[in-house]
Amino acid sequence: MLGIAAAVLFFIAFLINAADISTNDVFASGNVMLLGLMLLALHVAGVGAGTRIGGSRRR
Predict the structure, then answer these.
(1) Is position 33 within any domain?
(2) pLDDT tens digits, residue range 4-43?
(3) Which of 2, 20, 30, 32 is deepest in the core (most CB within 10 A)?
(4) Which CA distances in Å does 20 have to 8, 12, 33, 49?
């Protein structure tokens, strides 16, 4: 889920940069891209993956 959110933020950052949309400092394309990188790092680290409780184990 975090990977999908990161992809959406990267797309928004690309649109802001490609269309040369002037935004305030908070929603600048670099800041949106950094948020996407943070979400991507959390996704790769396994945050939000969920845990399996009571799963069967193979022996």
Answers:
(1) yes
(2) 888 888 888 888 888 877 877 777 878 888 888 988 988 8
(3) 32
(4) 18, 12, 15, 36
What token pair was written down for 7? Answer: 């992809």
CB 40 within 8 A of CB 3: yes
Is this structure's pTM higher than 0.70? no
- The token pair at 57 is 């184990």
Q: Give the Cα separation of 24 and 16 in Å (integer).
A: 11
Determine whether 12 is exposed, middle or buried from the number of CB atoms within 10 Å of its CB (0-12, 13-18, 19+): middle
Domain membership of residue 59 (yes or no) is no
Q: Would 13 be classed as within a structural domain?
A: yes
Quote the number of domains for the chain.
1
